Amino acid sequence: MAKVVLNGIEKVYPNGFKAVHGIDLEIKDGEFMVFVGPSGCAKSTTLRMIAGLEDITKGSIYIGEKQVNDIPPKDRGIAMVFQNYALYPHMTVYENMAFSLKIRKVPKDLMDKKIREAAKMLDIEEVLQRKPKELSGGQRQRVAVGRAIVRDPQVFLFDEPLSNLDAKLRVHMRVQLAQLHKRLKATMVYVTHDQVEAMTMGDRICVMNLGRIMQVDTPLNLYHYPANKFVAGFIGSPAMNLIEGELMNKNGNIFVKMGGIELILPFSKADKIRARVGKRIWFGIRPEHICLGEDESAADVNGRIDVIEHMGNESLVHFYQDGLQVVAKLDSMDSKDLKPGEQSAFVFNMEKCHIFDYDSEENLSL
Question: Under a CB-based contact definition with an 8 Å cutoff, are residues 281 and 332 in contact?
Answer without folding.
Answer: no
